[in-house]
User: What shape does this take?
Amino acid sequence: MGCAISGLAAKAEFGERNTEDAAAATHPTEDQIQMIKESWKVIRDDIAKVGIIMFVRLFETHPECKDVFFLFRDVEDLERLRTSRELRAHGLRVMSFIEKSVARLDQLERLDALALELGKSHYHYNAPPKYYSYVGAEFICAVQPILKERWTAEVEEAWKTMFQYVTSLMKQGYQEESIRQRHITLSPKDRPEKKNTAL
Assistant: This one.
């Protein structure tokens, strides 16, 4: 069952970064962008399958992630998950986000906006940032058999770089939304005082 990157290796590879680390996540190079786009052409044909494999593996390697998913929280039978319409639909939504990310790799402002917005929406789903990097690790494990001999160390590094970049922005978006929501819930007397600087 094991993919070299799964389990504890996933935590080490994709590291749980905080917002200070966002600047440390580098954007993929031109060569890496080309590798990602070329491999995506092959992966795209199996996106529903990859989405299901990715989430079943995620729940196997990190069962605590199920707590975030109301529909799957109490499902113990992984076989039932493999045939779940709801899991298939969620997997397709995640794969759609990956497809949009791949398409925007050479349009940095659009990619940044997409990832920040997804991070903000995950705040409202109660999906904490510590889980984001796990998805990238499980995606890599799910696509290796599809790419077969096209899978190389360089292709793997390119995908890792993209996921690290995107998840660092998602985490930043989550933090920004968390701060914004805390500010909204503060009563006017608890908010920092605005000084009137008008003459």
Remarks:
- Confidence is low (pLDDT under 50) at residues 6-13, 15-23.
- The CA atoms of residues 18 and 171 lie 7 Å apart.
